[in-house]
């Protein structure tokens, strides 16, 4: 099946710093990618829709200045958590679609810990 | 917007028994309903999906039913095995958007 790769899988950063997470579709082009956030033992909450070549669409309650999304190519979307705080610690997962009425494909996730 | 509710939040069954997880959705525009299995710290894995033009779909020990009128859909796992233990999420989507709204998850534990 289609492969979506996310990097890094784990990251620890200090409060106040920024962290970039990459989401790549390895064997297909994705005009749209999605970013989800998952707190421990909770569901995946959609944060934003990343559109290649245009601005991301953020879900209600998600700070666009805090979570910067860039979708510069058909195979790469990045999520940058700016000025990270301990409450931003979470599991971040991206997904991408290949069209053709198939399901969305998920990256392996990034566990962010802000200390 | 879409809202998906999922029950139960935890479910323990004896090996060999069946497990049923239920979801409801609110947006009548949703027409694609995937189910995902997620093991701790890993990506969700699609196990089965159903589209709104179908009432039931089966794949070996796993089946999904959809009642479009009532906006209910359910996951049925028969002859459960310990390796079925994981967290299961339902989701609803408008096909072609790939924007999934997930249920709250069910932690299934199969006791050997």
Features:
heterodimer, A: about 120 residues, mainly beta, 4-stranded antiparallel beta sheet, B: about 110 residues, 6-stranded mixed beta sheet, 5-stranded antiparallel beta sheet, about 0% helix, about 55% strand
Quick summary of this structure?
With 115 residues, chain A is mainly beta. Chain A is 0% helix and 51% strand.
Task: Please outline the helices and strands.
The complex is a heterodimer of chains A (about 120) and B (about 110).
Chain A (H helix, E strand, L loop, with lengths): L3 E4 L2 E4 L5 E7 L6 E7 L5 E8 L5 E2 L8 E7 L2 E6 L8 E7 L8 E2 L3 E5 L1
Parallel strand pairs in A: 2-11
Antiparallel strand pairs in A: 1-3, 3-8, 4-5, 4-9, 5-6, 7-8, 9-10, 9-11
Chain B lengths: L3 E4 L2 E5 L4 E7 L6 E7 L6 E7 L4 E4 L2 E6 L4 E6 L8 E7 L8 E2 L3 E6 L1
Protein model, in words:
In chain A, strands 2, 4, 5, 6, 9, 10 and 11 form a 7-stranded mixed sheet that branches. In chain A, strands 1-3-8-7 form a 4-stranded antiparallel sheet, with no helix packed on it. In chain A, a hairpin with a 5-residue loop joins strand 5 and strand 6 (about 55-60). With about 120 residues, chain A is mostly beta strands. Chain A has no helices and 11 strands. Chain B has about 110 residues and is an all-beta fold. Chain B has no helices and 11 strands. Chain B has strands at about 5, 10-15, 20-25, 30-40, 45-50, 55-60, 60-65, 70-75, 85-90, 100, 105-110. In chain B, the strands form 2 sheets. In chain B, strands 2, 4, 5, 9, 10 and 11 form a 6-stranded mixed sheet that branches. A 5-stranded antiparallel sheet of chain B has the order 1-3-8-7-6, with no helix packed on it. Chain B is globular, with a radius of gyration of 13 Å. Chain B starts with a strand and ends with a strand. The chains are: A mainly beta (about 120), B mainly beta (about 110). Chains A and B meet through strand 4, strand 5 and strand 9 of A and strand 10 of B.
């Amino acid at each position: 099946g289609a492969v979506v790769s996310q990097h890094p899988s784990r990251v620890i950063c200090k409060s106040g710093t920024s962290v970039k997470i990459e989401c790549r579709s390895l064997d297909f082009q994705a005009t749209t990618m999605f970013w989800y956030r998952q707190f421990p033992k909770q569901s995946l909450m959609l944060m934003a829709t990343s559109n290649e070549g245009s601005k991301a669409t953020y879900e209600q309650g998600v700070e666009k200045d805090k979570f910067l999304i860039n979708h510069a190519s058909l195979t790469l979307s990045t999520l940058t958590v700016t000025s990270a705080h301990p409450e931003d610690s979470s599991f971040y997962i991206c997904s991408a679609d290949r069209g053709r009425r198939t399901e969305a494909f998920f990256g392996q996730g990034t566990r962010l810990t802000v200390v | 917007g879409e809202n998906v509710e999922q029950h139960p939040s935890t479910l323990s069954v004896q090996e060999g028994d069946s497990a049923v997880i239920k979801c409801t959705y609110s947006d009548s525009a949703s027409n694609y309903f995937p189910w995902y299995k997620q093991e701790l710290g890993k990506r969700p894995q699609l196990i089965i999906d159903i589209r709104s033009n179908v009432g039931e779909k089966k794949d070996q020990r796993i089946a999904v039913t959809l009642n479009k009128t009532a906006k209910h859909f359910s996951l049925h796992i028969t002859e459960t095995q310990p390796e079925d233990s994981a967290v299961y999420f339902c989701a609803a989507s408008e096909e072609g958007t790939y924007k999934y709204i997930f249920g709250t998850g069910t932690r299934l534990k199969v006791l050997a």
